[in-house]
Amino acid sequence: MTATAFSMDTVNLNYLTDEEGKKTGVLIPIEDWEEIKKMIEYSLLKDSLLQAFQEMNEMRKGLKPRLSLNDVINEL
């Protein structure tokens, strides 16, 4: 999965306001929401993988205890 060329600058936002004109919410087109969700999921996956590689590196250096196969399975 690669990051898309999606930009928040092109999203057509519609703001919800209260009686005083204060912004209380936002509506966005569903197509834009789907792209935003993809970006969030990609970012979360990337962060998760980076953390896993950092933990593996710490284990190799002896800074963190190694996990057994059972430990890995139990974490799933």
Describe the 3D structure.
With 76 residues, the chain is mostly helical. The chain has a domain of 46 residues. 50% of the residues lie in helices and 12% in strands. Strands 1-2 form a two-stranded antiparallel ribbon. The longest helix has 31 residues. It is elongated and about 60 Å long. The relative contact order is 0.11. The model has no long low-confidence stretch (mean pLDDT 89).
Topology (elements, then pairings):
Layout: E1 14-17, E2 23-27, H1 30-60, H2 69-75
Antiparallel strand pairs: 1-2
Q: State Rg.
A: 21 Å
The shape, in one word, is elongated
Strand elements, count: 2
Supply the number of helical segments. 2
User: Share of helix among residues?
Assistant: 40-55%
Mean pLDDT: 89
Uncertain stretches? none
The largest beta-sheet arranges its strands as 1-2
Largest sheet at a glance? Answer: 2 strands, antiparallel
**Percentage of residues in strands:** 5-15%
The end-to-end span amounts to 22 Å
Derived from helix and strand composition plus strand pairing, the structural class reads mainly alpha
